[in-house]
Write a structure and sequence with these properties.
With about 325 residues, the protein is α/β, with parallel strands linked by helices. Among the domains are: about 5-70, Arc Repressor Mutant, subunit A (Orthogonal Bundle), CATH 1.10.10; about 160-265, Periplasmic binding protein-like II (D-Maltodextrin-Binding Protein, domain 2, 3-Layer(aba) Sandwich), CATH 3.40.190.10. Helix content is about 40%, strand content about 20%. The protein is built from ten helices and twelve strands. It has helices at about 5-15, 20-25, 30-45, 60-85, 100-115, 125-135, 195-205, 225-230, 240-245, 280-285, and strands at about 50, 55, 90-95, 120-125, 140-145, 150-165, 175-180, 190, 215-220, 235-240, 255, 265-270. Strands 3, 4, 5, 6, 7, 10, 11 and 12 form an eight-stranded mixed β-sheet that branches. A two-stranded antiparallel ribbon has the order 1-2. A two-stranded parallel ribbon has the order 8-9. Helix 1 (about 5-15) packs across helix 2 (about 20-25) and helix 1 packs across helix 3. The protein starts with a helix and ends in a 29-residue tail after the last helix.
Length: about 325
């Protein structure tokens, strides 16, 4: 068993598709297939269930993947620690966020304060964030949905109201507030399942025993306001969009939603078992100490989570 086999297995397990894995690895498909076959022979157990040309990670593969992710993550951490020590800089911090508007200005301010830090930003949904944290591909996730796991730590950054956006001239334009039953028959523009806007919308409708009527669903949260302005439907938009100056370019009407928990909770999440560079530690300190751009709604717990003080760990 060698590192090449483990890397190939990790990518194939992610896609559950040999051709897509080969494209990412930039190798020929037969080479990937042979490598996986050799790995299974060495382990004495199949890692995938095969049905024709389709493959699915089986229970043995899922069990093995957990350990492979940890092992490769440790090696990647060691490589990063060595590079940080050799280069004498702050190192790199990698951040994933569901929407870029949420984090862009924070990262810009951090770069201004720490110009020697290397910053990488990813746009990911909640399922991808979980995988990226486990694989060590990112240091932090700024999530609008819960990320849970015994290996994860988190701190709440902010809470903000989520508003209903409607086209100008819509019968709700100018209303102060609206209930879910009043808009149950309206066509909605929203994100696909997995994004926080869709999760919130489904939960609000389910609480009223209503079925959501969709006009458009996609993977680009930033485009929702444009589609609403164009008259394609109504939709939920975080209050930060109203204050970000976008309304002068994308005119919509804003209405409060009279429903419990119609808000977004932003959380910073990280893998407590992963290596954090000096840049990552400084970023965590920075983002948890500044007034976030969203309006902080009252925290029903009456406090914010404690952020541990931590020094870079010696992984040698």
């Amino acid at each position: 068993m060698d590192l090449l086999q483990l890397r190939y297995f990790q990518v194939v397990a992610r896609y559950e598709h040999i051709s897509r894995a080969a494209e990412e690895l930039r190798v020929a498909q037969p080479s990937v297939s042979r490598t996986i076959a050799r790995l299974e022979a060495e382990l004495g157990s199949p890692l995938f269930d095969r049905q024709g040309r389709r493959i699915r990670l089986n229970q043995y593969g899922a069990m093995f993947l957990h350990h492979v992710d940890r092992a490769l993550s440790e090696l990647d951490d060691g490589r990063r620690a060595l590079r940080d020590a050799r280069d004498g800089g702050l190192g790199r911090v990698s951040v994933a966020s569901e929407t870029l508007l949420t984090i862009t200005h924070v990262l810009g301010s951090f770069r201004s304060a720490h110009p020697r830090a290397e910053v990488r930003l990813f746009q990911s949904n909640v399922a991808e964030m979980d995988r990226q944290l486990r694989a060590g591909e990112v240091d932090f996730c700024v999530a609008s949905q819960p990320l849970t796991g015994s290996h994860l730590d988190s701190v709440e950054l902010a809470r903000e109201e989520v508003l209903l956006a409607v086209p100008r001239g819509h019968w709700l334009d100018g209303r102060e507030s609206v209930t879910i039953p009043e808009i149950a028959d309206e066509p909605f523009v929203t994100t696909r399942t997995g994004h926080w806007q869709r999760t919130l919308l489904d939960r609000l409708f389910a609480a009223e025993g209503r079925t959501l009527r969709l006009s458009c669903e996609g993977n680009e949260p930033a485009a929702i306001q444009d589609m609403i302005s164009a008259g394609l439907g109504i939709g939920l938009i975080p209050a930060v969009s109203r204050r970000a100056g976008t309304t002068s370019f994308v005119p919509v009407g804003w209405v409060h939603v009279d429903a419990p928990h119609c808000h977004r909770v932003l959380t910073l999440v990280w893998n407590r078992e992963g290596y954090l560079s000096e840049a990552a530690l400084k970023f965590r300190e920075f983002i948890t100490s500044i007034p976030f751009m969203t309006h902080r709604l009252p925290d029903p717990r009456g406090h914010r989570a404690h952020v541990p003080s931590e020094q870079p760990r010696d992984r040698s």
